[in-house]
């Protein structure tokens, strides 16, 4: 990222979408997709019209996490009909691909796919579109940022040093592109033993909060390592669909972002 990027062509953001929130991370496996699906569900439960775009071209996991493995239909060959799951309108590059196939795409093809998912999907009127970004600071993030498509970015990190180091790069990229930063989310912050209540800081402790303070960005949430969250994601019914402490945490996050 360098210089002062300016929007290069027509806006990417469809007019029928009021707000786009992009969820990024420095590296993979920190829970970015889990946070994206649960945030989308929690926003829908709060009464918003919500879309979820899985732009994680290299590891699209939203079809599995949202429990929609149907292929997306395009009756006229132009407009793609999104799927609806748990009250969320969703589209994933994974719904256009074989889940087992690895994607090795070059920049221009990525841009084509992104453009198609933004412009040719029949999203309808949306209050919020949540975009699950690929990890890191690649072409997808740059294009969305440079073309002013993102109203607010969230960066998810574990407290682990390497994850934090990469999260800082992701934040730096958004700052350079002048994308408004909504804040950091610390995921897998602590493991509380279900039998004895002992707290284990498996990935470290306090690093994300310290980073948020150092960079002057809000710490939006601190989410524990939670077996039910993982099981719910694998089962295609995000934890935020139900009741309990994790659903409450996502509801609070959604409420905070609405206000
Ligand atoms: P990313 O999108 O950053 O690659 P995922 O959301 O796919 O990460 O999460 C990676 C794995 O960790 C998944 O199996 C997911 O269910 C699990 N996971 C994510 N967040 C949590 C959590 N808070 N507690 C337990 N498991 C989690």
CATH architectural grouping: 3-Layer(aba) Sandwich
The name of the CATH topology is Rossmann fold
Query: Which word captures the global form?
Result: globular
Topology as H/E string?
EHEHEEHEHEHEEHEHH
Radius of gyration: 17 Å
Distance between the termini: 31 Å
Uncertain residue segments: none
Number of helices: 8
**List of distinct ligands in this structure:** adenosine-5'-diphosphate
Please bin the fraction of helical residues: 25-40%
Overall mean pLDDT: 90
Assigned CATH superfamily: P-loop containing nucleotide triphosphate hydrolases
Classify the secondary structure makeup into a structural class.
alpha/beta
Strand content: 15-25%
CATH class: Alpha Beta
Strand count: 9
Structurally, how many domains make up the residues? 1
Give the biggest beta sheet: 9 strands, mixed
Family: In the N-terminal section; belongs to the MIP18 family.
Function: Binds and transfers iron-sulfur (Fe-S) clusters to target apoproteins. Can hydrolyze ATP.
GO molecular function, one term: ATP binding
Keywords: ATP-binding, Hydrolase, Iron, Iron-sulfur, Metal-binding, Nucleotide-binding
């Amino acid at each position: 990222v360098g210089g002062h990027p300016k929007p290069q062509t027509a806006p990417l953001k469809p007019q029928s979408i009021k707000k786009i929130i992009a969820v990024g991370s420095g590296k993979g496996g920190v829970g970015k997709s889990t946070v994206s699906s649960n945030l989308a569900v929690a926003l829908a439960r709060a009464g918003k019209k919500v879309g979820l775009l899985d732009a994680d071209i290299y590891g699209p996991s939203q079809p599995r996490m949202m429990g929609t493995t149907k292929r997306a239909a395009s009756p006229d060959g132009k407009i793609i009909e999104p799927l609806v799951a748990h009250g969320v309108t969703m589209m994933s590059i994974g719904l256009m691909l074989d889940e087992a196939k690895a994607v090795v795409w070059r920049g221009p093809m990525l841009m084509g796919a992104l453009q198609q998912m933004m412009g040719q999907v029949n999203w309808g009127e949306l209050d919020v579109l949540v975009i699950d970004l690929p990890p890191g600071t690649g072409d997808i993030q740059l294009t969305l940022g440079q073309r002013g498509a993102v109203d607010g970015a969230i960066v998810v990190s574990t407290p682990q040093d390497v994850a934090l180091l990469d999260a800082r790069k992701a934040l730096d990229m958004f700052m350079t592109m002048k994308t408004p930063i909504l804040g950091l989310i610390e995921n897998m912050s602590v493991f509380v033993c279900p039998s004895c209540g002992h707290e284990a800081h498996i990935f470290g402790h306090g690093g994300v909060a310290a980073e948020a303070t150092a960079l002057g960005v809000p710490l939006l949430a601190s989410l524990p390592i939670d077996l039910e969250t993982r099981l719910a994601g694998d089962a295609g019914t995000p934890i935020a669909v139900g009741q309990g402490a994790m659903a409450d945490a996502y509801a609070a996050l959604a409420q905070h972002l609405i206000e």
